[in-house]
Here is the input.
Amino acid sequence: MRKFLKQLSASKLKIAISSLGIFVLIAFSAIMIFQMTKVEVAFAADGKEQTIQTHAKTVADLLKELDIDMGKHDAISHQLDEQLINGMSIEYTTAKDITLTIDDQDQQYITTAGTVGEFLKNEDLSVSEHDEVTFKESDKIVDGMHLEMAKAFQLTINNGGKKKKVWATSNQTYREVLAANDITYKNKDKINQNLDQKAKPGKQLNITNVAYETVEKTQRVPFQVVTKYDDNLEKGKQLVKQEGEDGKLRKIYQVTKENNKKVKEKYVKTISEQEVKHKIIVIGTKEPEAAVATSPQKSKKQTKTDNKLASQPAPVGSKPEKSGKTLRMVASAYTGDCSGCSGYTATGINLKANPNAKVIAVDPNVIPLGTRVWVEGYGTAIAGDTGGAIHGNRIDLHVPSVSAAHAFGTRTVTVKILD
Here is the structure.
């Protein structure tokens, strides 16, 4: 009996072992079948590639299996309903937000381009060699990227009359544009644009070259013939007391040139190179002795006394000492100390050095230069100057200042010829 039971237990063990083996075989076969029914695909997401074995039937199923929620602007290389097959290669790109600023104008873009160059090509944007950019076309696109571009334009520069076209961008100031093109200028030059402002298309940059030169002009001062009367010289006779000699003045001017063209000339000063010497002719007025002896009015001694008195100047504003030719004349006043005035009279008197000199400007055809006169309200003076507006019975009285000239105004006065 014991032997029978022992044989029965051995038989059950064999059956159990045999059943376990069949189960394991079935399970292994199932696993093998499960694995063999998968498809193997290459999946690249934003450039990161992996090999995937999946039971997904379509591309959409695969995305769901990978827990990828495809966005509106995302890109994928296959249709979502396309069946998966072994060896399929799928590329998936997530859309990225970027900002492109062109000449201070911002534009938002959503792109699936991998590089900046691809993005520019997709958007039909070009970059010239003169444009100013903050990126390289090989740069990888990342979400939130900010690209900046300043488009180049041609700017005309007129430098002293010579025009030149150069490239510039709105990111550059006019000063930077000049420096980039090795164009120099001087502080005194005139420039029509603010050099520290940004360059703008359609504008022209004009540089006017300004230069200053000192010019000297020599002016001849012609001598005048001065007639004097001498009652010690017999009437009808005349002598040359002094030969005339022209004077010479050197006038200094500052000349302003713009682009080598004279635009302004400013008087600076006058230098006397040579004083004028007027020709002096003495004419005798002495009457013959016989005529003097029969004259009931004056003796010879009295005549000499009168001549001595006549040679003395009259006090300012007083009546003349000796009666002579009397004229009624229109008088105005002037000063030698004025802007642009040389300070020298036509006879070479330096009025700036002698501001109180009693000199009048006359028409030499009416009152010869060198004549001593008495002017009502002015006193004894010398006819030592001329003027462009002084003609006929018109005289101009020298006074120390412009205010004094204005105060005098214009008036009619009595003029006595003293000699």
User: Anything to note?
Assistant: The mean pLDDT is 84.
